[in-house]
Write a structure and sequence with these properties.
The chain has helices at residues 2-7, 10-27, 53-59, 104-123, and strands at 37-41, 44-49, 78-85, 89-97. By secondary structure, the protein is of the alpha+beta class. A hairpin with a 3-residue loop joins strand 3 (78-85) and strand 4. Helix 2 packs parallel to helix 3 (53-59). 25% of the residues are buried.
Length: 130
């Protein structure tokens, strides 16, 4: 996940950060019935970010967000694979920039990688936090 985040351009990282902090963290698993979150089975979900930071700020106006006119409006098409514990605690497994490669093959490889990471997480000895 760190490599993915480090590789995002500033504008896309800002959009993802806004989506995670204002949408995913606040609404959690209840997003499964919306355009934001798609269940993939076996506890894996795909969080879909299709909006710029400015668009998200306009949709979810919270204290602390700059005025939308001062934010980037770069086209965004990001996918982040997540797993939930309860309604709101979420494990970010991996992600990719679908805008760079929207092929079915790339998507299937990314889903397989996220499933492997989730499986590895689920097999860890209980009682360990990492």
């Amino acid at each position: 996940m760190e490599r993915f985040l480090d590789g995002l351009p500033e504008e896309k990282f800002a959009a993802l950060d806004a989506a995670l902090s204002t949408i995913l963290i606040r609404h959690g698993l209840s997003l499964a019935s919306t355009k934001w979150l798609r269940p993939l089975g076996q506890g894996l979900h795909k969080f879909r970010v299709r909006h710029s930071e400015a668009d998200i700020a306009g949709m979810y106006q919270f204290a602390g967000f700059p005025a939308p006119s001062s934010l980037h409006r770069t086209p965004v098409l990001i996918r982040v694979f997540v797993h939930f514990h309860g309604d709101h605690i979420c494990l970010l497994l991996d992600g990719y920039d679908k805008g760079k490669d929207s092929s079915t093959r790339k998507q299937q490889r990314q889903i397989a990688k996220a499933r492997a990471l989730l499986s590895q997480f689920q097999r860890r000895p209980k009682g360990r936090s990492t």
